[in-house]
Every structure is written in structure tokens, then in C-alpha cells.
Amino acid sequence: MNAPQEPPVTLLPTGFIDLLQHEAEAEAQGIARIMDVFSQYGYEQVRPPLIEFEASLLAGGGQALSAQTFRILDPDSRRMLALRPDMTTQISRIAATRLAERPRPLRLSYAGSCVLVGTPGRDGARQITQVGLELIGPDSAEADAEVILVTSSALSALQVANVSIDLSCPNIAKALIATETFTAAQEATLIQALDRKDVAAVRDLGGTLAPVLTQLLRATGPARHALEILTQLDLPLSAADEVRRLQEVVNAVWTADPTIILTIDPAEFRGWQYHTGLCMTVFAADVREEIGRGGRYLSYEQEAACGMTLRPEALLKATPPVSLKKRVYLPHGTSAARSHKLREDGFATVAGLNEVSSPCAEARRLRCAYYILQDKLVEV
Amino acid sequence: MNAPQEPPVTLLPTGFIDLLQHEAEAEAQGIARIMDVFSQYGYEQVRPPLIEFEASLLAGGGQALSAQTFRILDPDSRRMLALRPDMTTQISRIAATRLAERPRPLRLSYAGSCVLVGTPGRDGARQITQVGLELIGPDSAEADAEVILVTSSALSALQVANVSIDLSCPNIAKALIATETFTAAQEATLIQALDRKDVAAVRDLGGTLAPVLTQLLRATGPARHALEILTQLDLPLSAADEVRRLQEVVNAVWTADPTIILTIDPAEFRGWQYHTGLCMTVFAADVREEIGRGGRYLSYEQEAACGMTLRPEALLKATPPVSLKKRVYLPHGTSAARSHKLREDGFATVAGLNEVSSPCAEARRLRCAYYILQDKLVEV
User: In which pathway does it act (chains A, B) (predicted)?
Assistant: First the structure.
């Protein structure tokens, strides 16, 4: 038997990549821009660590990501550590501990890398960047709307084109279903049918709720159209409350900025594991995957919270290319004052470390757009 | 026996911390500022992943950090992954693979988090941030000097006060020692004595080299003074070459910027495990630990390289406090146009999500310096 061949040391594991110049700059600048907009709305940056005790990271809502979490044994504490698969749990922990005494509403923002175990054989990203905000304390339509408005403002600042924010509220259908006596299995099958928008199956499985549930499926699309249908449905009190809240959120958003595109998909359930009210998914027309997601949930000690997490890897596909500084080649011996002035003027100076016969050719070789000749800036 | 009590889920493992508002902002802004200066000198940003195959991360110079590296089994490849304890090895890999065809000098910059296993019982940081640059290709005094100049420029941009850069060159003493026939044990003891600046021990152990080695110990301190001594020593050819190179580096730095404070410690060996020439340690007067370190080394396939890694955690102790946007409380119902204008003017707007009886009291409660009253900006 041959020993298994070691792959070259230059290979990266599936799902982990190098970002090179333009990509790395775009990510860094994009994150900085988003965080700046968050700060303009009074969101204060926190930076939790990459690693925590497993028990902390997987507490509460974090439990949902347990199977996607890498663990490591800590030689110091002899306890299991975990690499964060998500940052929301960390922000909740900070809000409930070090910032417990801070007045509410508490507005926090964060940016950082997370690591997922991934699915063997699939080549999805396993290191993902998250940039997000959490509005902790209030439970109101105004608070939900603020999360949407700030998100929209950040995406505008990045010139992400054709953004739409899809609102869903699994509680509407759940409140309806709770009025009937389904078995757990029936209920699960019915929810799957709703999630698939399978009208025939919903009719079959819905019993006396079939008419209202099929109407609910029709209430999908632009928010104005969907709300017209939703507000006319004959709903039990708690479901009607959810619809009213949805209407209030849409009104509050459009009062502040009527250009924001909102859609509604009331019967979406997928991926909303710990959310307790409004759920939001952010799309840009030219990007297949979602560029952000968020919603209302309960933070530590059942404190109300609503948040949004943006995914730079996805959303930067919909932004204009990042502009880099123009490079100027400085022949060896160019004065420090001259090169200082060029940097002040916004150029990147590329110093010649030795004499060359043709500064122009050397500038071209080093991908510079300009070089200095007799103290003058000359185009290559 | 009682079951061991689980600590509260809010506790963090030793060496991992949360950065809150001012600290998190200072780190983000400081890193962005340093990276911007690097880009002004033509350094192009790359962003390698947090995790690689163990074999890649610990190749070459990376081996030195093996004992400080966390490993994880990858369920996808069934191979060992490692969390990077340092980024230099990653930059070397990128230079030798995806950027192999790029013309040299290749100038790369990077910023990111690294994780160390740490020493059980000690409470040093286990997550550290690195911001650095690598100048790959040339092996010359001009290249060494550029690394010093760009570092100094970045620290000036951050207003780090009283920076000094300490230069050492273990090769001078090693070249001297190689001219005598010491046993390996004798050599190790002698190097330890030199490193400790233990003149008596160096005299005892140095044999015929004792006079020149004790002179070498005297050549410590401000660069001008140290070089006066070093250049007058009677040295073997290779050690004299190292001194000449050191003199050239100092001259090149001072030609470009005579205000840079350089010191020399020719007999320092600690921590320089894979360096092949000049070694640099950066200090600021008010910070006990070093704020950066770097030097000349051989990259993949023996390519010449010189680099510098700055430690924001340390250097931000020597920078002026970060200035945050002034917060303005907006009573519920403030117009979108008004709040937009305030953000454009550089304020952070804190929206009132409901009516309050005293906007002034609410502004104070939410740590705002101002609030809006009848469309006017009023100080709290």
C-alpha cells in the first residue's frame, strides 16, 4: 500500500478562500461604509471574540447552528470552545451582561468573520463575513421599521442597485393553524405545503382553514397588494394583530422613505428558527442569493430585539467596482517631498528601489499609470 | 461526588475579550488608517482565510508557531485544519502561488485576527489582531528601509507618540561565533549570555572572541552611536558585510526622513526564529510591550522578503482617543429630511421610537449631546 499523498501545501480547504487586491479592498471598504451608516443612526460598534465557550455560543437562538459549529478543546480551561458560526448570540450576550445597565433602546452594530462546518461534498463558503445591527429593548412597529430603514440606507450608501426587502410573518399562519385541531404531523405537512406555495396540497390538508389559507398564499408580492388581501381576511384575533403590525411596519417605512421596495410573503417558514415576529430577507436584483436577513426575536432573558445581518460576500456582487488609488512609479532618488506630495494628492507611490534604464518601462511593468520624469507626472 | 458546576454562559475563555464601543471603533478606525497608509505606498491588500490545512500554515517559517496553533479535524477532507496563529506564512503562500506571475517587487498588505493556544494559567491575549505589510522580491538596504519608512508613516498617521524602531542583526554575532570552534552547547550558552547583555559571562565564554563580543555589547543604543562602534570593530568579512548593510539601511531611512528614531541592539536573538538579516522591533514610549515587529526572511522557494507586523491592541494604547459622532436625539415624528440633514452634517441621529414627555430628559437618558426642538438643534 502506498502512503496517501499529501496535497500541496498551497491548497486551501473547501469553502475557504483568499481575497486578492480588488476583492479584499472591496470587502474592507464595503464593511467600513456599512458600519459608518450604522453609526450615523446611533448604532454603537462592539467586537466580540472569534471563539467562546461552546455553552455560551450555543445558548438560546445559537442552538440552531449547533451542527454547523466547529469545536476545539481548550487546554487552559479543559472545556470545549467553539468558533462562532454567527454573531447574533454574542451581541445578545453583550447586551445582557456588560451593557445590561445601558438604557434601552440599545443600538449595537458589529462586523466580523464566522466559520461554518459546512456540508461535506458541497462547496459552499465556510468562512462568512457578517455585518449587522441589533435594536434591543423596544417591541414595536417603529423599531421594526428602523431596522429596515437603516439597512436600506446602508445599501444605498454602497450603491447596491434594485434592493427589495421581503417581509414575512410565520405567526400569521401559525395563529390560524392553532385554531384547528391538527396532529403534530398534519401541522408539519401543512406548513411544508404553505412554504412550498402548494395550493392544491393546502386545499387538501387545510380542512376548514383551506379557504383562508389559500387566500393567504395569494397575499404574496408587492407589499401594497399583499396587505390589501391580508387586511380583508377573516382572521382570529392574534393573526389579525400580526397583520396589523405588518401594516404598521410598512406604513412607518414608507412614511420615512416611500422609495423602499417592500414585498410580502406571509407563508414563508424556512430558516426562521428563533424568530418571534417580523422576518426580513434582503435581495438585490442581480444577486441570486439573499444579501441579508433579519427579524424580531427574544434576546437573553426574553428581552425584545430586532436585528439585521448583511452578507458582504453576496451584496458586494451588486455594488460598483471599488476604485483604487492610481499608481505612480517613482524612479530611485525621487525626493521624499515629491513622493509625500503625490500621496497627499491621493496617488499610490511605488518606489523604485534601484536605478533602471527606462522609468517608463519599469512603471508599466509595475502596473503604474504614471511615473515621475524631471519632477513632472507623466502618463505611461 | 457533585457534578462539576458549569460556569455562567456569559463568561469568556481566558485571553478572549469583547471590545465595546470606543475600543471597537478605535480598532476598526486604526486598522483602516494603517491600511490606507500602506496603500499610499503601493501595498495591495490581500485577505487570506482564518483557517487553512495545518500542513500549509505550518510550512516554512510557520513551524515556529506550531505549539501555539489550534487544530480542528475537517469533516469534509478528513484532514487537520489549523486556525492561523500568524498571517505572514499565508502572505508568502499567496505570493508564491496566485501572485507568482506578478512582477517583483511585490508589495502586499493585510489585516486580520489570529488565534493562539496560549500558555495555560497565564492570561495573555489569545486572539490578536495583525496589520502588516510584506515587500517580496528585492534583497537590499533600500527595501529594508522602505519597510521602516512605511511603518513609521503609518504610525505618524495614527499620531502614535515617541515611536522608536530598534534594529538588530543576529547574523553579526553569529558570523563572529562561526570563526571559532565552539561546541553546540558552548555556542548556545554564549548566545544566551549575549542576549542577556551579560558582559562577565561573555568574557568567560567568548575565548579569543571575548574582546570583540564585549565591544559588540557596547554598540547598543541610538543608531548613530552604535554604528560608530560597530564600524570600527575588527570583524570577519561576512559580519562586516552585515554591519555595512545596517549602515546603509540607517542612511536610506534618514535620507528620506531624518526624524525617525532608530536604535540598534546588535546582540539580540530572542524571538528571531526564521529571520535571515535585519530584524526590527517597534516601540512607543508609553507602551510597555512592543507595538510591532518584522524583518528580513526567506519566503516560499527561498524568495527574498522583508515585512512588518503591527499589533493594534498594543499600539492603540499610544494613540489619541477616537472621536465618535455627536449624538442627537430626534423626538418621535421628526421629519426624514431633518434627520437626513443631521447625518450629512456628521451627527449620529438617535430616533425616538415613541412620544416622550421631555425630549431633553430622554436625550440625556440616551447619552445624546443634543436634541431637536421645533426643528432647532438644542444642546442638552
Answer: Amino-acid biosynthesis; L-histidine biosynthesis; L-histidine from 5-phospho-alpha-D-ribose 1-diphosphate: step 1/9
Task: Give the residue on B whose Cα is nearest the Cα of A327.
Answer: B42
Dump strand ranges (E) for A223-356: 261-264, 275-284, 292-298, 304-310, 327-330, 348-351
Q: Considering only CB atoms, which chain A residues are within 8 Å of B79?
A: 13
Q: CA-to-CA distance for A86 and B163, rounded, in angstroms?
A: 38
Cα gap B148→B32, rounded to integer Å:
19
B301 vs A225, higher pLDDT: A225
CA within 13 Å, CB half, B220: 15
Tell me the C-alpha distance between B222 and B263, whole Å.
4
Q: Which residue of B has its CA nearest to A45?
A: B21
3-state secondary structure of B226: helix
Contact between B40 and A343 using a beta-carbon 8 Å cutoff: yes
* Binary contact (A18, B77; C-beta < 8 A): no
Chain centroid, CA B360 distance in Å: 45
CA-CA-CA-CA torsion sign (A360, A364, A365, A371): positive
Give the residue among A316, A352, A318, A312 at the shortest CA–CA distance from A334: A352
**Is the sign of the CA dihedral A51, B317, A26, B57 positive or negative?**
negative
3-state secondary structure of A264: strand
Residue ranges of chain B whose pLDDT lies below 70: 1-9, 271-272
d(CA A307, CA A297): 8
Q: How far apart are CA A46 and CA A38, in angstroms?
A: 12
Is A72 in contact with B70 (Cβ distance < 8 A)? yes
User: Residue B293 region, left (φ>0) first, then alpha (ψ -120 to 50), else beta?
Assistant: beta
Give the closest-approach CA distance of B208 to chain A in angstroms: 40
Say if strands A261-264 and A163-168 run parallel, antiparallel, or are unpaired: parallel
Provide the residue count of chain A.
Answer: 380
Name which of A325, A338, A328 is nearest A379 in CA terms.
A328
Strands A106-115 and A44-45: parallel
Q: Are A100 and A70 in contact (CB under 8 A)?
A: no
A236 Cα to chain B: minimum distance (Å): 28
> Chains A and B: how many Cβ contacts under 8 Å?
241
Query: From A300, which residue of chain B is nearest by alpha-carbon distance?
Result: B10
∠ CA A161-A162-A164, nearest 5°, is 130
Neighbours of B213 (CB within 10 A): 23
Tell me the nearest-neighbour CA distance from B238 into chain A, angstroms: 23
A351–B42 C-beta distance less than 8 A: yes
8 Å CB contact between B166 and B263: yes
Dump pLDDT digits (tens) for B307-365.
999 999 999 999 999 999 999 999 999 999 999 999 999 999 999 999 999 999 999 99
